[in-house]
Amino acid sequence: MSVAGITAENAENLPDIEKQWAVKSFHHAETYFRLVSAVHPRRIKLTPIDDEIYAAFREEFPDLVLENLRELEDFKSEKAKAKWRNFIMKYETKVEDYNFGTLLRNRCGEDYGPNNCFFVTRFQFFCIEIARNREGYNDVLHADKN
Question: Where is the Polysaccharide biosynthesis domain (predicted)?
Answer without folding.
Answer: 17-142
